[in-house]
Design goal:
The protein is globular. Helix 3 packs antiparallel against helix 18, helix 9 crosses helix 10 and helix 21 runs antiparallel to helix 22. It has 22 helices and 13 strands. It has 2 domains: about 200 residues, D-Maltodextrin-Binding Protein, domain 2 (3-Layer(aba) Sandwich), CATH 3.40.190; about 200 residues, D-Maltodextrin-Binding Protein, domain 2, CATH 3.40.190.10. The protein is of the alpha/beta class.
């Protein structure tokens, strides 16, 4: 994908006549509450407010796992917000099937979303029975190892270039009083780390067989056994993290108290907020430095059906604003994610973002597990790895349970 800056497009205003004529307050719920995330969501709010409407922020503290049940409960309980964040994939599938979410096909067609949103799988994840129900806003990839250059300097070892070197550096880090691997206590963090290890160690084809084809035999086989061995190494290296939230774990890396963290590229927002420079203060290894592949999941906004006509029209304005080239650049530079539009250029992107753009351009991508698994199957996987990282469960027992989850996954 050739990313280029369309000067005219970037100069385009997000002030839309429709927004001025039908100004309304619109509550928008999301779980972006860390410092870097708050800075990014402020760009969306600013762009929407410029249309004459008003972004009423409905941030819900905690992770998506905390926020989503609240969002779903409000929608099903008859108290819908104007718009709500979900991840790309199947998290809102049942709400759409229940007729509770707004069809955005007319807006998407008018603004040629199918032509500008890249890769096409992002819009496919918003499409149910041929109709488009969400507006993608970014591409977030999980497949990153973030390293504190200061931590490795303190430990007297070179900054690792791949996962094996990172594991080998653990004793030196521990001797220096540094936690090798920061992992927070939220279940999605340990489950996500396992998914990243799978792509790096077992490869793209195995990942797709397990999560895409739901192949129980592969999940129970020798390639995944290697992944569980790596997960066991990660578990041992993460002892002493003693934090809950993902951004707290990121802060351990920022402050040199931890050597590294397996986390999505949203971690970049925290590094940026702390004034750290990619390549100087921290190092990023896409695909753990082993297999440079990124997932093309991320965030999208869905719009519950509303009875208020003015708010319904404001929903259209917000959907359009989220995909505006200027909004896409401003938001994603703060968020650390990649734009969903293929016609904008992030000239100000840092070294790590540029690595992600290069991998995306080469097409070395996979879908995220949020896109491949139902919310229920994803929850089962998260529960398993939460228990695995917090206990002495053997890798063999964990793999057996994992294969059972895959066998019944939908």
């Amino acid at each position: 994908m050739k990313l280029r800056l369309l000067a005219a497009a970037l100069a385009a205003t997000v002030v839309l006549p429709l927004g001025i004529a039908n100004a309304a307050d619109l509550e928008v719920t999301h779980w972006w509450t860390s410092g870097g995330e708050a800075a990014a969501v402020a760009e969306l709010a600013k762009a929407f407010d410029a249309t004459g409407n008003k972004w009423v922020d409905g941030a819900i503290a905690g992770s998506g796992g905390t926020a989503r049940p609240i969002m779903v409960s409000r929608i099903t309980g008859g108290d819908p917000m104007g718009a709500t964040q979900f991840n790309h994939g199947r998290q809102a599938e049942e709400l759409v099937q229940a007729g509770l979410m707004r069809d955005l096909t007319d807006v998407a067609t008018k603004e040629h979303w199918k032509d500008i949103i890249k890769p096409s799988s992002l819009l496919d994840s918003c499409t149910i029975d041929g109709k488009i129900y969400c507006a993608p806003v970014n591409i977030h990839s999980w497949q990153w190892l973030w390293l504190s250059n200061a931590a490795f300097k303190t430990a007297g070892v070179e900054v690792p270039k791949n996962w094996d070197e990172f594991v080998a550096s653990a004793p030196a880090l521990e001797k220096a009083g540094i936690v090798p691997l920061a992992v927070g206590g939220q279940p999605w963090q340990s489950a996500g780390a396992f998914d990243v290890l799978m792509v790096a160690i077992a490869g793209k084809d195995t990942f797709n067989k397990v999560f895409g084809d739901k192949d129980e035999a592969v999940a129970a086989g020798p390639e995944i056994a290697k992944v569980f061995k790596a997960a066991d190494d990660a578990r041992k290296m993460s002892k002493g993290s003693n934090v809950q939230d993902w951004n707290q774990a990121t802060n351990l890396v920022i402050t040199g108290k931890a050597g590294g963290q397996i986390m999505g590229d949203w971690a970049q927002g925290e590094f940026q907020l702390a004034g750290q420079k990619a390549g100087t203060d921290y190092t990023c290894l896409p695909g753990l430095g082993v297999n440079e592949i990124i997932s093309t999941g991320g965030d999208a906004f869905y719009f519950p059906l509303l009875k208020d006509e003015e708010k319904s029209k404001a929903q259209e304005v917000l959907a359009s604003t989220l995909l505006n080239p200027k909004t896409q650049v401003a938001f994603n530079l703060k968020k650390g994610s990649l734009p969903v539009r293929g016609d904008v250029d992030l000239a100000a992107a840092n070294d790590c973002m540029k690595k992600g753009l290069e991998i995306l351009a080469k097409g070395n991508v996979i879908q995220g597990t949020d896109q491949l698994l139902s919310a229920d199957s994803q929850k089962q996987k998260e529960d398993l790895f939460s228990e695995f990282f917090a206990s002495s469960m053997t890798p063999e027992d964990a793999q057996k349970r994992f294969a059972e989850i895959i066998a019944s996954a939908d």
